[in-house]
Amino acid sequence: MTPTTTIIDLLRHGEVENDAVFCGSTNDTLTDAGWQKMVKALDNKGKWDLIVSASLERCQEFAQLIAEEDDIDLEVDDSLNEMDFGHWEGLCPEQIMKEEGELLNAWWQSPTRVSPPEGEDFHIFQSRVLAYFKNIIENNQGKRILFVSDTGPIRLIIMYILGMQDENLFRLNVDYACFSRLHIYHDEVGEKGCLIKHG
């Protein structure tokens, strides 16, 4: 087997209209500043063979424009969407602290064992994101791929590549329009990943 390298670029969406609240499944739109910051984040990053995007508007609209401008194949999938925060959707942390402070703190301390009320279980969330990510890698070895998604999925992908423990989810910061680059090396013994850039 000839060794190959798959280049994975990860881009979080920019600032959204309701940026102070939990908006996992909520379909918030980008602000003008958020859009421009995403454009700047991709400046001089080259051209991709494939763009994949979460289906939420804050990710998909930008990904679609980049794909159309550069004539790049685009794949949109719900698997890359943020975690559904259930009853916490649309609420800011301060509001939640007043009613469910203990539960919120427990979730922050242990996101793999505690879930938001009526929200998505961590392991289901992790499974859908990583299954999709692995499938994209398997079917596109040696290509350059741009993922446009949310904080949670990007954290999960980077943590998977670095072998981080699930409990450390919130130790990895992913700001608005954060750009990260991964290299996936494929050879006769399998594949291994490396974080090249983050932030």
TrEMBL record:
Keywords: Gluconeogenesis, Glycolysis, Isomerase. Belongs to the phosphoglycerate mutase family. BPG-dependent PGAM subfamily. It comes from Cocleimonas flava. Pfam families: His_Phos_1 (PF00300). The keyword Isomerase applies. It comes from the Bacteria. It is an enzyme of class 5 (isomerase). Substrate binds at residue 58. This is phosphoglycerate mutase (2,3-diphosphoglycerate-dependent).
